[in-house]
Amino acid sequence: MPDPASASDKDMNILFIMYDQLRFDYLSCAGHPHLDTPNFDRVAARGVRFTNAYVQSPICGASRMSFYTGRYTSSHGAQWNGFPLRVGEQTLGDHLRRIGMDCWLLGKTHMKADAEGMARLGLSPDSEIGARQAECGFDSWIRDDGLWGEGPDGFYDEKRSPYNEYLKSKGYPSENPWSDFANAGIDENGDIASGWMFKNADKPANIREEDSETPWLTQRAIEFIDQAKGRWCAHVSFIKPHWPYIVPAPYHAMYGANHVPQAVRSDVEREDPQPVYGAYMENKIAQAFQREDVRQKVIPAYMGLIKQCDDQLGVLLDHLEATGRMDSTMIVLTSDHGDYLGDHWLGEKDLFHDPSVKIPMIIYDPRGEADATRGTTCDVLVESIDLAATFVEFAGGRVPDHIIEGRSLLPWLEGRTPEWRDFAISEYDYSATPQAVKLGVEPRDARLFMVFDGRFKLIHAEGGFRPMLFDLQEDPQEFHDLAKGTAHAAEIDRLYGYLAQWGRRLSQRVTRSEDDIKTMRGRSGRKGILPFLVDGSEVPEELTEKIRGTAPKRYVGG
Amino acid sequence: MPDPASASDKDMNILFIMYDQLRFDYLSCAGHPHLDTPNFDRVAARGVRFTNAYVQSPICGASRMSFYTGRYTSSHGAQWNGFPLRVGEQTLGDHLRRIGMDCWLLGKTHMKADAEGMARLGLSPDSEIGARQAECGFDSWIRDDGLWGEGPDGFYDEKRSPYNEYLKSKGYPSENPWSDFANAGIDENGDIASGWMFKNADKPANIREEDSETPWLTQRAIEFIDQAKGRWCAHVSFIKPHWPYIVPAPYHAMYGANHVPQAVRSDVEREDPQPVYGAYMENKIAQAFQREDVRQKVIPAYMGLIKQCDDQLGVLLDHLEATGRMDSTMIVLTSDHGDYLGDHWLGEKDLFHDPSVKIPMIIYDPRGEADATRGTTCDVLVESIDLAATFVEFAGGRVPDHIIEGRSLLPWLEGRTPEWRDFAISEYDYSATPQAVKLGVEPRDARLFMVFDGRFKLIHAEGGFRPMLFDLQEDPQEFHDLAKGTAHAAEIDRLYGYLAQWGRRLSQRVTRSEDDIKTMRGRSGRKGILPFLVDGSEVPEELTEKIRGTAPKRYVGG
């Protein structure tokens, strides 16, 4: 039923913008010392910036499936990149279309279709239902996952690349211009200098800036918005600032070594590290980011990519303003996870230190109800699954809380203070990684869980490894693993209690809502199920009328 | 891949016989003092009787969905009667057909189709795929759930009843002969004496014995077996000895008050009972079974129903022997849960005392590998979900342990002693019951969990109620709730640790097997994903060949 404080009666839309691997703290509104992002700040100034937002998993695919289903990774099951989302799992598209809002995809999802499950149910990928199943519930305006790497075993992503086709149409002479131009420079010999190699990160990508990935998708978004009819949610999902770390001119030259923050790491972290953390510290990307020369080449490129994202966000915002859409469009800016960039001796994401698991989360809500909170920050514990609930409520629906495990953020946007969660959960499944091989862990045991209560962060590891504990109040840099000692046993027990409570959560009773169940209560008696009658006097006559019948023929003696 | 010790290369079949609400201890092989069940004993003498077998939920629907999926109720989500099994959830039928064994249903499943989910995926119930989805993965030979009660709001079960149609074809003059004849006697005035009323339990059902439910389904089973081609699993699922408690002559007169065991109950149980238990003790059926006159009328009828089941089992076994099928047919005898019959001041099932949650589990394995264990008992902790795994392995398949959570019992049948579980879990969702209303519990909090380690049984209740603890070694009758005191805090903590471990289990990663994941390990590098290269020297040249390319046209200065 529509919520009066919702957008149901207006023609409100949702622009759900996701960046890939954007750290929470690489924005000027989040306090970055050198990076100026006036357009992110512009949305923050008109909305709310949530300063404690966490992803359900610090890895693209699993995290995105949680954004799109509103469910924890252990609930939807697509717990790592390339693990298909099981057929029938409901998504934003299912929930929003049910209440009259279209749900479109532009860009990346990292969704892998459950081809086996679809075949088992006879769903053709060509059918509308099959196509939505294969695209994570979205109608696909243009999908490009933006990772067109190719090796001896072929392409990482075997789908077609609309972006590569665009580049070819623009005359870039290559079978894979994404690899040869958009993500490569030119070396001193005039040869391709691949963006996969950090030594090339300071070179300009050999592509016209307007043809690079971020402007390309921004233009597709503008085209979508200009033609869109009815109420829509558009997931505009950029691949950048995700690696390969290389950016076209002029962004390649905007930042230098003098803008690279010191790595947040301490020798104490390398003393007898928890084994899974230790294995990650020794992997190739961690070893690369432990080199200062690498950080000084890569981070300026990463900053340049973010600066380009900010400029293109400006283009999009200007277009919304010019076309009078700012008062009818909710704008969300977030990311699927962060990037260690050498912090904690690590590269990439994967683990649960804030640079990896904490994300930017800025929401502009155009409704008058949200005027009171414009330009403020909110430090409650937000989980990425909260967006699905927020969108459903914003679109005028009632959150199906037997399916969506997140909670609507609208109350916070309206300046109210609802009862809220005591802890946030994040999970990481490293079963397919070299670290699992190195540690000799079976796939089912290669799983990590984070429990964060706003101050203490516990990391539990299956497979018999010890946990980790950080006190972010006393040790905001997360250097000191308090689980090594015994002094914090009580905190560890308390957080394990939260994890156990979460483990008992109701996550699969998805075919009956709380209201359905309340309606069922006691109904069976009125449908003739009376297993408690001694002589019938226990219940009103109407319940037994049908079983009293009339005089029957006698079939047996007795 | 086929297991040499399996039936894959022979023409082995599975006869999976389930009784409804049959207590584990109402068989002579299980030590019942008055009930003689030579045919159950006959299977036990040729197979293994598992003496510690537990259902995943002591309620028909949820328990059966666990038998059929091999998954805990919190994993498949159909946690109570009438909660549909979500579309796409895999069942025995999916797993067995995949390895060349048909999977047929004869009788009751209590399955409710996920009509909304099927519609969402465009599955027609008329299609083969749709029909299997609607029948819990079985091909339906004949389905009859055997509860044709009718009240002011209509029938409890709105499907057609093949059994009622059979009775009508036999000339029983009624629109609902199940209610008016099969489950009713005749009173002193010649009127219908409904089996719903316990006062009528000692009357003979007004039906020819051969037309009553158990013989009727037994004949359908024989018809099925005689025509079956190829390898099959047949789920022959009887409604009896489930209520209504009334049985045709001569069974109605075989047992009397002198054969009724004393109720296993103690006044100490009524002193400050755990609140959920307390609410159940006060419900209508409990109050009825607290009356000795009710027990003395109902239990002889219940015993008569079991005796009839045993005689009909004899008919079926004789037919298998006469047709030479005993050496090619695995026979399983079990039940979906027990029946309190007044024990612990309760009627029906629902809670976790042994009379409710423990089941008979007798398995005859015709293979020579099982000769060593014939006529033995096995006291390891068995869960009902183990049957699905057992059947897949018996049929020559490899158990898909990323989907099926149970474990194959074949090693035990072969006299081996595999590493085994430390605890059994059972769950009960009472969200739709009057007890939840009485206790003022929201649907999501009306859930109970049992953890049993073979000696201590912990019952955890969501919703803030205190737990219960029983020591079955010191208190086999489960009278003394040790959670009331503080003396057993350590045991309670230990069992809560098991529950927490279970809560973190891997249950939804169903689209990737353990082997799939091992195959994925490290593969992305060979598909062009190289986010760790400083200069390329880190990896063999073949990995970087595709990104080195050839001299490109210069698009931008740098």
Overall description:
- 2 copies of one chain form a homodimer.
- The first copy, chain A, is built from 19 helices and 21 strands.
- By secondary structure, chain A is α/β, with parallel strands linked by helices.
- The longest helix of chain A has 31 residues, at 292-322.
- Chain A has a single domain, classed as Alkaline Phosphatase, subunit A.
- The first copy, chain A, starts with 12 loop residues before the first strand and ends in a 10-residue tail after the last helix.
- At the A-B interface, helix 3, helix 5, strand 6, strand 7 and helix 8 of A face helix 3, helix 5, strand 6, strand 7 and helix 8 of B.
Features:
homodimer, 558 residues, Alkaline Phosphatase, subunit A, eight-stranded mixed sheet, four-stranded antiparallel sheet, 19 helices, 30% helix
Radius of gyration of chain A: 26 Å
> What is the helix content of chain A?
25-40%
Structural class of chain A: alpha/beta
CATH topology value of chain A: Alkaline Phosphatase, subunit A
Mean pLDDT of chain A: 95
CATH superfamily of chain A: Alkaline Phosphatase, subunit A
| Main beta-sheet strand count, sense and barrel state of chain A | 8 strands, mixed
Total count of domains of chain A: 1
Query: Which word captures the global form of chain A?
Result: globular
Largest interface: which pair? A-B, 141 and 141 residues
GO molecular function, one term (chains A, B): metal ion binding
Protein name (chains A, B): Arylsulfatase A
Keywords (chains A, B): Hydrolase, Metal-binding
InterPro entries (chains A, B): Alkaline_phosphatase_core_sf, Sulfatase_N
